[in-house]
Write a structure and sequence with these properties.
The protein is an alpha/beta fold. It folds into 2 domains: about 170 residues, Rossmann fold (3-Layer(aba) Sandwich); about 60 residues, no CATH class. The protein has 9 helices and 12 strands. A hairpin with a 2-residue loop joins strand 3 and strand 4. The radius of gyration is 18 Å and the shape is globular.
């Protein structure tokens, strides 16, 4: 149990310990240690190819871990630490099971259905345990979508589509929300408007949030903590305010990718 920056006690929704992940047994991510608590926003930063998306896919269950320990929403999804140790896998290793327990992923391509309206996306994603008027509740967080309720997703702007993708994820009432490259294909001014909405959503729902982002300073401004990944290894992590003040650390960790 941890005390968050807001002063509330919370339990972790994600714990990765010495996690190796990759493809066909070849590690892309190595030795990942990462914790996300309820109501906390954590930014995973790094250049293209650093291993950020691989990390998200592994947490979501779309890629099997190679080694290490992964605990998602209080359940051990994988435990293999050292040679000869027992590998522990349960039903959480199936992606649908993690989703039902409260994990929601917004992929970088947004995953929307062009022919469905804003309202239809939200209704389809509504949690079965949620008896409230989900569409209205979610649109309170994204007021720019309210006048577009009946518009098809394929007719929305890039920024509006990204808002809808996040709103749809929130309609599932997630305990852990992961957002991959929100800024992809969007102008910086649009990203500046969108990232604070993620911060507001975490505060309103109590979900733990992991955002993967290349816009370093924008992500640091809305996150509680951040980790910088380079060539599959987290080179530095800590309080976002402290990291933002240490541009030398960010440059050596982030720009060192080039």
């Amino acid at each position: 149990m941890t005390v968050t920056s807001a002063g509330h006690t919370s339990s972790p929704v994600l714990v990765a310990q010495g996690l190796d992940a990759g493809y066909d047994g070849v590690p892309v991510v190595r030795g990942l240690d990462l914790v996300i608590n309820q109501g906390e926003v954590v930014a995973l930063l790094g250049a293209n190819g650093a291993g950020k998306t691989t990390t998200l896919l592994t947490i979501a269950g779309l890629l099997p871990p190679i080694s290490g320990r992964l605990t998602v929403l209080g359940e051990v999804a994988h435990d293999e630490r050292g040679r000869g140790r027992r590998v522990r896998r349960n039903s959480l290793t199936r992606t649908w099971r993690r989703a039902r327990r409260g994990l929601s992923l917004v992929p970088e391509d947004r995953g929307l259905f062009p022919g469905l309206t804003v309202n239809e996306h939200l209704r389809l994603s509504k949690s079965k345990t949620n008896t409230s008027n989900t569409s209205n509740d979610i649109l309170d967080l994204f007021p720019a979508l309210a006048p577009l309720r009946t518009r098809q997703a394929g007719l929305l702007s890039g920024g509006e589509q990204q808002m809808l993708a996040i709103a749809r994820a929130l309609a599932t009432m997630p305990k852990l929300l992961m957002v991959d490259e929100m800024s992809l294909g969007l102008a910086p001014i649009i990203v500046e408007r969108l990232l604070p909405l993620v911060r507001s959503a975490a505060a309103a729902t109590g979900a733990g949030v992991l955002i993967v982002e290349q816009h370093v300073h924008m992500a640091l401004a809305v996150s509680d903590r951040a980790a910088v990944m380079s060539r599959g290894v987290v080179t530095v992590q800590g309080d976002s305010r402290e990291l933002e003040a240490r541009s030398d650390i960010l440059e050596s960790s982030y720009l060192g990718e080039n």
